[in-house]
Amino acid sequence: MKWTDKTWTQIEPIYQKIIKMPFIEELQKGTLPLEKFQFYMRQDSFYLENFARSLALIGARAHRVSHALDFIRFAEGAIVVEKALHDSYFQEFGLSQRGSIEPTTHHYINFLKSTSALDQVEMAMAAVLPCFWIYQEVGDSIYKNQLSEDNPYQKWIDTYAGKEFKELVIKAINICDSVAENCTPQQQERMTQAFVEASKLEFMFWDSAYQLKTWD
Ligand SMILES: Cc1ncc(C[n+]2csc(CCO)c2C)c(N)n1
């Protein structure tokens, strides 16, 4: 059994909880209060910038040059493609400043940075995989179950439900499976742990946006 198949079954309960979150259900219906989406977008803009730096660092540390190139391209994608989504929403919703990094974003960013700098590169690859894979599953699930045709969050949905994004995710999944093959069972277990932790942080990221959770 592939490492990714085995590992996804571990986070299936977290994924099921994510698709039933009010943030996701209301995003799907288009009824999510603008204030909550704006909070999410502002925090996500900090997240993306730091996530891209982690991807570039993983690229630099990858053993195979083809993986280095893939991660450098992922890093570029995080800045170019998703930043464009942010810029258009920042403009559309009149967001001028992003404010400051709130607790969950702070936690997630620092988890990614320390994992990609200090842990074995295979663990770092596993830690960034939920960011790709969960977004693709959530994007697909929203797209399939969508009722409203006039959704202010359609651009967000289309970014993650598209064919292009799916190909990117398959690439990230295949890289993890190929590095896992050369790992010991203990190392594979540590990869799984990093994957599970990042999945919990994905849940928390949406939950904190829904609750507008700040340091104060
Ligand atoms: C909290 C949070 N987690 C994941 C993503 C999705 N995402 C961000 S960068 C990237 C890879 C390259 O495009 C992906 C899939 C997000 N936007 N915000």
Automatic annotation (TrEMBL):
Q: Which residues form the Thiaminase-2/PQQC domain?
A: 8-211
Q: Which GO terms describe its biological process?
A: thiamine biosynthetic process; thiamine diphosphate biosynthetic process
EC assignment: the record states 3.5.99.2
Give the taxonomic lineage as stored in the record: Bacteria, Pseudomonadati, Bacteroidota, Flavobacteriia, Flavobacteriales
Q: What domain of life is recorded for the organism?
A: Bacteria
Entry keyword annotation includes Hydrolase: yes
Function comment? Catalyzes an amino-pyrimidine hydrolysis reaction at the C5' of the pyrimidine moiety of thiamine compounds, a reaction that is part of a thiamine salvage pathway.
Task: Report if keyword Hydrolase is assigned.
Answer: yes
Gene Ontology cellular component annotations, sorted alphabetically: cytosol
Q: What is this protein called?
A: Aminopyrimidine aminohydrolase
Organism for this UniProt entry: Mesonia algae
Catalysed reactions listed for this entry: thiamine + H2O = 5-(2-hydroxyethyl)-4-methylthiazole + 4-amino-5-hydroxymethyl-2-methylpyrimidine + H(+); 4-amino-5-aminomethyl-2-methylpyrimidine + H2O = 4-amino-5-hydroxymethyl-2-methylpyrimidine + NH4(+)
Similarity comment: Belongs to the TenA family.
Entry-linked CDD domains: TenA_C-like (cd19365)
Its keywords, alphabetically, are: Hydrolase, Thiamine biosynthesis
This protein's pathway reads: Cofactor biosynthesis; thiamine diphosphate biosynthesis
Gene Ontology MF terms? thiaminase activity
